[in-house]
Design goal:
By secondary structure, the protein is of the alpha/beta class. It contains eight helices and 15 strands. The structure holds zinc ion.
Length: 261
């Protein structure tokens, strides 16, 4: 029997490996439960893709309320490898755009603050959550293929080690619904992707970026058993998630992680 999708309700994908961590809140929101009109229907959380600002604001309010965070922090994502530390000093300098705070541009957010939700926006790119329950540190990474080429997940693990004294063995990781090996066709892979990605071809011209991220994290010391992949392809599931590859001009899904206050 086909699963019924209640398009009026806000809903999100949650990971079992993160669900047991005390005080942690997380979710990758579907496209449902917002107020935006097509082609952004309905829970679009990006300001810069042509949607009405009033609709985006209301969608973000719903996301913020759903996760129960006093503060929601985002960044201008640019497919680079800059990591932004979200501490009280950075928050004081962030741009206020109710109901979110916007950090300087970057593609990863790291924080140890309570009550602060880290928001990454995606349409086919991965949001990668990292959690160190021992040190109380979290990260939310925007990782498209350029992030994968830049080894961004491993760079964030390095920063967690250097800045917070995290042991990679204590880290838990989760890879959001995103472009799957079924749909990740790279016709120009010889120009765009390094040779080290060749073993991750699922069939000619197709690459498994879920396994690439998993491999980058395990190479950085994260135990394989601590890494969970949603294994949901956003291109295949456009009834639930926004997909840039499938739809072109469309909305962005919200991926949020934070420590409850
Ligand atoms: Zn697919």
């Amino acid at each position: 029997m086909a699963e019924q999708i209640q398009t009026s309700l806000i809903s999100c994908h949650r990971f079992s490996n993160l669900s047991g961590i005390d005080g942690l809140v997380h979710g990758v929101f579907t496209r449902h439960g917002g107020v935006s009109q097509p082609p952004y229907a309905t829970l679009n959380v990006a300001w810069n893709n042509g949607d009405r600002p009033e609709a985006v604001q209301e969608n973000l309010r719903r996301v913020k309320q759903s996760v129960g965070m006093g503060m929601l922090v985002s960044t201008c994502q640019v497919h680079g490898d800059i990591i932004r530390l979200v501490d009280s000093e950075a928050i004081s300098r962030a741009k206020v755009r109710d109901p979110v705070l916007i950090m300087q541009s970057g593609d990863a957010l790291v924080s140890s603050l309570r009550g602060v939700g880290l928001l990454i926006k995606t349409a086919d790119c991965q949001a990668v959550f990292l959690v160190d329950p021992m040190k109380g540190v979290i990260a939310n990474i925007h990782c498209g293929w350029r992030g994968s080429v830049a080894d961004l997940p491993a760079k964030v693990v390095s920063l967690l080690k250097d800045r917070f004294g995290c042991n990679p063995k204590d880290l838990y990781a989760a890879i959001s619904p995103s472009l799957g090996p079924c749909c990740a066709e790279f016709r120009n892979f010889q120009k765009e992707l390094p040779r080290s990605f060749l073993p991750f071809q699922s069939r000619p011209l197709h690459f498994d970026f879920w396994r690439i991220t998993r491999s980058q994290l395990t190479n950085a010391g994260v135990p394989p058993v601590n890494i969970e992949t949603a294994e949901r392809c956003t291109v295949c599931e456009t009834d639930r998630f926004f997909s840039y590859r499938r739809e072109g001009n469309t909305g962005r899904n919200a991926a949020v992680i934070g420590w409850a206050e």
